Write the structure tokens for this entry.
Amino acid sequence: MITDASGPQGSSGIDTSVCEDDARETIDAFLTLFGTRSPSLQQIWAPMGFVWDQIGVDNRIPDLENLSDFYSHPVWLLNGLFIEQDEQSLKNRDAFATWVQSVEPGRVADFGGGYGTLARAISDRCSETRVEVVDPYPRPEALRASAGYHNLAFAEKLDGEYGLIIATDVFEHVTDPVGLADEVGRHIPVGGRFLTAYHFAPSIKCHLSSDLPFQAVMGPGDGEARLREGGSRELWQGLPQDVDAAAAREGPQGRAAVTPPSSGEDTAAGGNAGLSG
């Protein structure tokens, strides 16, 4: 039996009517197991671990083909739909979008943006900004949800320069975060910004074991990387727990670092800044 619990704006939880038939069947099965259409973050994490094991991904030495199968699975659509009705997730993305509006970038990439919740929020506030969800596994449901936004598009990879690149909870999902950081940094001009939240902790199996030491190197959570004159990168770390002050810091408050995003999915509330993944 599935019970309904009121979510934001009086919603009755996750609505699977927007899903393709194959995904709807899978997601409804998980919701039946949860016993609610308004699951907790921990309940969302559980099927991610199940699918990870079902596909046979090795956390220590992940096979790229298996990783592709995992991030193409409907469980990530479930994650995106969770974000659409979870109060904390929506609050965090609203804070990010409000900050983006304050800096008025001409072009924004939401790298690994998945279902596009954050990108749509930015598009609403920044009608003159070109917004791109950069994700190699876009679901048809995500494309439909974004179809009415004239300044929003999906792209398989970064192309050219961006005044702002955002990556929420992506670094911990890739096999080479530092290499990807270097690759992404090539798309940010001097004076551009890189806003990121990450969670290098073994909360779920798709946080790769090889990445966990970055928790000590990069700090516990969140920050804004901004390219300065000469191309140096500095990381502003330690954004507030509620992410409401996710604005650019005027001076460095953390250690120097290079921060990468990745393919994957726009992830749920949790982690150090109320984001997760």
The CA atoms of residues 26 and 74 lie 7 Å apart. Residues 8-85 form one domain. The two ends are 27 Å apart (CA to CA).
